[in-house]
Structures are given as C-alpha cells and as structure tokens.
Amino acid sequence: MTQPDHNISPAVPLAVKTPIPASWQQMARDKGFRLTRRGADRYQIMLECDHCGREHRSKRNVLMDHTPLCPHCIEQRWREDARSVGLELLHRDPDDHRHGFYRAACGHSIRRQFGRVRQIARGKHALRCETCLRHVEEAEARTAGWELLGPPRDRGSSYRRYRHSCGHVQEFARANMQTERICCGGCGVSWATAPSFIYCMRFKIPDSSSMTKLGFSKNPRSRLHHQLMCSPEIGGTILRTVAMSTGRAAQSLEKRMHGALKRTHPNAIIPPARYREHLRVKSESYEARLEPTILAMLNQLGTGADLSV
Ligand SMILES: [Zn+2]
Ligand SMILES: [Zn+2]
Ligand SMILES: [Zn+2]
C-alpha cells in the first residue's frame, strides 16, 4: 500500500483559491443567494439561500444559465405538504428521487411522489393507505365467506381475486363483495339463496349525534366490527337482527323498508358527508329519532307478520 508523502502539501486546485468575480456575486444576489466560496473544483460554487440561510453546493453554469433551487427549502416544502395532510416525511426513496417514504396517521409507511402529496394537500386527490385498504378488503371478503387473494388476472381494476370456503377461486367486482351480493361458481352457494339477516345498528359519530343504519348482511357482527367502522373510537352497536331465510328475501324487505322510511321521514336521512370520514357506509342511514320506528318494523318482521309498509 502506498503511504502518503507528508512532505508534499495536498494538491489544491488553483481555481479554488482564485477570487470570485464580482459579477458572479451579483448574479447570485439577483437569484436569491449569496455566493460564499468556491467548491472542490473550478465548476463548483457554494450558495447560501436568502430564505433559509443554509448553504448548498451548486455549479457555476447553474448560477449563470438557470435559477438555482435551494434543496433545503424544497425539502422543507415537502415536509410542510406532508404535515398538512397528516403525513410525516421519513426519507427520500434512494431509487427514485421524485418519491419519498411517509408515515401515515394509521402508522403504516406509504411511498408517494412528492408532487402527488402536494396535489393531495391541494385537495386534488384523496390520501389512502394501501395497507389499511387491504385490511378493509380482506374483512369485506371474510364477512361474505371468502378470502381475498389479490388483484384480478382477467378483469378490470374494480375486480379482485377471491377464494371461497369451498376452495373455488373466482374474480368479482369489489362492490359486489362489499354488499355480499356474490355467488360461488364452484359450490353454487349464493347470497340470494343463503340465509341472511336484516339488521338495525346505532353509531355514535364524534362531535355529532347518533345515527341509525338499516341494512342486511349474511354476517351483521362481522360487517359491523370489520367493515363499517373506520376506527375503534366510533361507537357501533347492533340493536336488532332478524333472520331471513334467504339473502334475496332480506334484500327485498330491506328495500321496502327504506322506501317506506324515505316516504314518511324524508328529512331524517343523513347526508353521507356527515359520516363518510368515520364509517364505510354509502347510504341508508337515518337520524337517531327514527330508531323506535325502525325497531318497530323489525319487531313486526320478527313475529312473522307481513310488513305493513
Ligand atoms: Zn433555502
Ligand atoms: Zn394504514
Ligand atoms: Zn364455493
């Protein structure tokens, strides 16, 4: 191994010692920087940002021909964009300079393009955690008696690949899995012919009054705990379930009940915007004052009497 010769002073490129021309200093000032010193070679310069006061290495031609960008200010903007939508910037993606890794409010790590986070901050896109979404979709499938396998092979992006408890693998639109309206092509079990329940649930939304949901499901408990509530802080209770011989019967009765409630209490329907953040419920929710009416309807069903709606 060659030892360094201490008698010879380390080579300092001549350019580094050369005074900086006043015209460069002026150009730096015009572009929002102070040229503090030369860099390691004659092409490099060090610029101090007027805005944040921090220094970065740049190139002479960048200063001459373009407007230098302060990397510290850029990173600060990324952090602010992230914070404004509840994300924490963890670090840049070493494999792609346009992407960063963030921690979402749910605790999961997500990867996003910096520009995308800016658009989310401006309200142009929704922020969704893929891990949480996967958990929700797995729960939807379990509720309906299926296992989520992954993306579809033959269908569009609204479809997923699932395995039934009989072992049969099939692709369905996710929307149909959410409402449990699916039939197994392997064993023939169908939502329409399998037993089901009509249910009435009560939800307490933070900073809002309670609301009542009427619906039907093959498995109301699983639907409540693993599918409808976005977080455990939401108080959700099943008030009553009535067994139906088939999903088809449950669906048809549920539709009639909603029709009757909409006719008689049109002002009691809660707009989805009020609970969208807390509940994965698209419609069919009413103000709590309708609870006795809905429970009375369900009691009537429970006695086997024909629904007088
Ligand atoms: Zn800066
Ligand atoms: Zn998450
Ligand atoms: Zn099956």
Share in β-strands: 25-35%
Shape: elongated
Number of discrete helical segments: 10
Work out the count of structural domains.
4
What ranges have pLDDT less than 50 throughout 5 or more consecutive residues? 1-6
Largest sheet: 4 strands, antiparallel
Number of DSSP-assigned strands: 13
Overall mean pLDDT? 88
Structural class: alpha+beta
Indicate the radius of gyration in whole angstroms: 31 Å
Please provide a written account of the structure.
The chain has 309 residues and is of the alpha+beta class. It has four domains: 14-69, no CATH class; 72-121, no CATH class; 130-178, no CATH class; 196-302, no CATH class. Helices cover 32% and strands 27% of the residues. The protein is built from ten helices and 13 strands. The protein has helices at residues 14-17, 22-30, 60-65, 71-84, 114-121, 130-143, 174-178, 220-228, 247-264, 291-302, and strands at 33-38, 44-49, 55-59, 88-93, 96-103, 109-113, 146-150, 159-164, 169-173, 196-204, 210-217, 235-244, 285-287. The radius of gyration is 31 Å and the shape is elongated. 23% of the residues are buried. Residues 1-6 have low confidence and may be disordered. Residues 104, 106, 108, 129, 131-132 line the site of one zinc ion.
